[in-house]
Amino acid sequence: MKIREKLFLGFGLYLFFAVAFGILAYKDLNTISTHLLHLETADDITNTLLEVRRYEKNYLLYGDADSLEEIGKYLAVLKDSIAKIRDEAARNIGEEHVAKMMLWIAEYEDRIGGLGKARRADRSGIDKRILALQLEEKVKVEQLRAVAREVQVYVAENSQAERSDIARILKVSSILLVITVGLIVILGSVINSKLARSIVTPIKNLERITKKITRGDFSESIEVRGEDEIASLGESFNQMEDKLDHAMTALEETIHKLQEKQARLVEAEKLASVGRLAAGIAHEINNPLTAVLTFSNLMLEQCLKDDPRCDKLALIARETTRARNIVRQLLNFGREIIIKPEHLNINNPVVEIIESLEAQEAFQDITLTMDLAGDIPEVSADPAQIGQVVLNLLLNAIHAIERPGKIHVATRNAGKTVDIAIADSGSGIAPEHLNKIFDPFYTTKDALKGTGLGLAVSYGIIKKHGGDIKVSSEIGTGTTFTVRLPLHG
């Protein structure tokens, strides 16, 4: 039910009770007015009857013709008044009593008229009959008075019935008024309470859930009940909440992606800066290192085998060679990576690098397994650069393994990318180090096993190809590096 309909219903009930009570009150008032008119007529009848009795006494005492004439007039008025309230009187005292009353009035009229005729005859009669006529008149007078008393009794009963009806109607009206006021108060309280609850409670729930949404909590929705405007508002609010939740989720994903891109940009800028610095430093120290290595090798060739300086010269040559290799890596890191893409099967550079390492002693006491996908699609990539990445990752895995160990190399078609996964059975990388392993010069290896540039260089190469490198590691179990190259580079 709509709120408008609820309001109309609430006010309609008030109006209904008001109109119903008004009609009943009007009806009772109209009835009371009718009874009052009847009562006034009954009082008039009583007064008329009293006048008849008064003139009756005058006539009986003085025998004047004027009193008899007045009695006739008042009797006519009396009969006319009784005729006006005959139906009401019949309802109050019964139809038979009304008929008797009319009969008594007619008899009274006959007797008073007969008494007048008798008195007129007495004046012209014989004197010896006077005594007998007086006795007869006395009897008639008593009968006349008896008739008058009967009529007066009926008139009094009718008046009393009218007054009883008026009192009863007033009592019923008072009770009806109390009941009606009570019903209006009770029903008004119930209806207003329910109506207020049906409006206020959903609004409070809406306010409470809105506050939760402002805190980022979308776990609760409006419970929709009914089909009124509040229910429609609740449905609209739930739809808005769902859309806002999806929008917030999408916004969080966008922010996360932007943060990742920003981190990549920072990383790329950092790599570029470090590369330029490393290139400058490597260029400056490369020539002195070459001179030291050349002269130490010449001196080593001229040194006799039993000369104690030979061991020191060999140490100088070996360390100088290691330093020169580091400088070359710095030069390679600082040099801008130039991609020369071509369509290739990614399995080819993987197999070539593994075969070149197997020819050396790098895989000593290491079990190497390969799982290369046969239906892998070609990608657009630089074979030499991809080979460099595979080499760096394999060397990184070899250095991480305590012999004996295992390395597993796999390629697969991941739908939008072609993946190269290299997993080792090394000691793993601690979680706090995972976000730093691609930083230049950051390494967890011994100083003799690496410089911390291999993963940084590999990361730059793969980013140039539009791909990515992911790493997962578990302490004591091993590490897996996954290279992802897009199918359309």
What does it look like?
- With 489 residues, the protein is an alpha+beta fold.
- It is 70% helix and 9% strand.
- The protein has 10 helices and 7 strands.
- The chain has a 5-stranded mixed β-sheet, covered by helices on one side. Strands 1-3 form a two-stranded antiparallel ribbon.
- Strand 6 and strand 7 form a beta hairpin.
- Helix 5 packs parallel to helix 6.
Topology summary:
Blueprint: H1 3-62, H2 65-84, H3 86-93, H4 95-124, H5 130-214, H6 229-302, H7 309-334, E1 342-344, H8 347-358, E2 366-372, E3 379-381, H9 383-400, E4 405-413, E5 417-424, H10 454-464, E6 468-474, E7 478-486
Parallel strand pairs: 2-4
Antiparallel strand pairs: 1-3, 4-5, 5-7, 6-7
Task: Spell out the key features of this protein.
rod-shaped; 489 residues; 5-stranded mixed beta sheet; alpha+beta; two-stranded antiparallel sheet
Short overview:
By secondary structure, the chain is of the alpha+beta class.
- Helices, by number, come to 10
- Residue runs with pLDDT of under 50 for 5 or more positions: 124-135
Largest sheet: 5 strands, mixed
**What is the residue-mean pLDDT, rounded to a whole number?**
76
Helix content: over 70%
Total strands: the figure is: 7
Strand content: 5-15%
